[in-house]
Amino acid sequence: xxxxxxxxxxxxxxxxxxxxxxxxxxxxxxxxxxxxxxxxxxxxxxxxxxxxxxxxxxxxxxxxxxxxxxxxxxxxxxxxxxxxxxxxxxxxxxxxxxxxxxxxxxxxxxxxxxxxxxxxxxxxxxxxxxxxxxxxxxxxxxxxxxxxxxxxxxxxxxxxxxxxxxxxxxxxxxxxxxxxxxxxxxxxxxxxxxxxxxxxxxxxxxxxxxxxxxxxxxxxxxxxxxxxxxxxxxxxxxxxxxxxxxxxxxxxxxxxxxxxxxxxxxxxxxxxxxxxxxxxxxxxxxxxxxxxxxxxxxxxxxxxxxxxxxxxxxxxxxxxxxxxxxxxxxxxxxxxxxxxxxxxxxxxxxxxxxxxxxxxxxxxxxxxxxxxxxxxxxxxxxxxxxxxxxxxxxxxxxxxxxxxxxxxxxxxxxxxx
Length: 417
Known about the structure:
Strand content: under 5%
Number of domains: 3
Shape: globular
Largest sheet: none
Mean pLDDT: 87
Structural class: mainly alpha
């Protein structure tokens, strides 16, 4: 069994991408669930479903960051997990109804297989072994409560789901990161790919929303505006956020590195990806009703999902020590303010306003911080946070040479990140 190096340039394997295909399907199922349950309670249930699916995917992201899944019997075990995860995804639309028990049992098996594999992977590493055993109780009790929740309905079922997920998520904090191993390059790449997968769901929603409808000028415009928003979401993440996150994790060692990886990716990427899923749902509802105002829940999806995505970026920035910034907090507030507007104007107009807000943010950052962004991208995560803090988005940031520094420091940025 090959264990990944925590300092090596490990990359995402084809088998991991194969596993992620099932998660893609699960995301489309959540979007469909929201569309079929366009109520406040439906939105809450959709959020709980997504949180459970995300935590299952995240568990395997950590596992395959520790060991190469394409080695020996591990490959067969990952195939088995993929198959069971497919059952979870298939049961998702009725996870609070007729297929609640199927969902619960399959979900429990997915999580149990993860613990078994992690236990085997850690047998030659006592510290990691202890970390897995600290995490295991919550990872078993949480999914077991979801199985038990299938025997109830209404508020009791929702309460059991909430308790189950709370136990599961809190279990990751036991030990304060001690014993866990993180390969930064692989871990960051894996999460970057899942962002692209989620954005792909928003593109799929354009096609699903427009299926069987005439492609008139309004729908073509809506489709193009949806692409504009998806492009801005991609830009917001891959322009510099992903590289700063990688540098911050690479800078840290031991428990601090594991805690940062957990906070930046396991926890803070959840609202980021769910924000994209909500936007996909809002887009799905926009295409068939371009000339009508959106319902309250669809408006929350379209504009609130984008606001949640931006707010998650602000939280990531704060966790890396970069401060809250200016553009993304303002964009989040503007997008929240657009939610009631989207219930009063045609859906096409609401989508156009959301696209303008997102595009304005990207233009603002591109024009105000050209040097910092260019420097961060050119180093692609291969820099220290001490250097990154000197690149912070300030107007007119320039090399030290411009301030009279020596030639040796001419390629180092000035403003603090």
